[in-house]
Amino acid sequence: MRHPHGLRAAAGNQGIVLPNIGDAFEGGYYAGLISHTADGVATHALIVAPRATGASGSGYTLTTNYQWKTENTTTSGTTSSYDGAANTAAIVTAGIAAHPAANFCVGLSIGGYSDWYLPARYELDIAYENLKPTTANNSTSFGINDYSVPKRTANRTTTVPGQTSVSAFQSTGSEPFVAGTHWSSTENSSDLAWRLNFDNGTQGNSFKGNDLRVRAFRKLAL
Hints:
Layout: E1 9-10, E2 16-17, E3 24-25, E4 28-35, E5 43-48, H1 51-54, E6 55-56, H2 84-95, H3 100-106, H4 121-131, E7 181-187, E8 192-197, E9 203-207, E10 214-215, E11 217-221
Antiparallel strand pairs: 1-2, 3-4, 4-5, 5-11, 6-10, 7-8, 8-9
């Protein structure tokens, strides 16, 4: 079922009205709302980059998979589970060349916007919840998300959410997430970072030197 937010105006953004989930919006596609106050703003609209130009890895038009980092060391300021923009900014400060996945995102200019970033783990989780590409069963070990709007307080069932009703984001459409693992910007340790599998919603850790898919996000403060 689609999640219309068309009646919600974005305060402070010239009365912008949010579209339906999956609709073209602000250089990409609207993926849902996230709520946190890390930057002093309570709610943000998450925007997923177009598949052809803002995603890369096995199954995408751009086929290069990327490492999270080229060495097994911590990157200060990258442990946020909900603020990928802050994580990515910290990566830029630490040295973007050593962080290939984030480097792909910050190098993008799409739709007149150049503030794309590598999403945090719970930002990816919101995209999975709203834009799940397949009919596969969900992992029931994940789904709680204190930052989603509305907040999710229980894990998923095997069948909820089902495949998105947004045809462009279904596995046979023009914009789906590839049903496989994608890097988040959330670090776990010196050698591990979080990733999410868009086949079943599983979150876990991969070695930073592993080559995984990347899809850039940006966000709009409301």
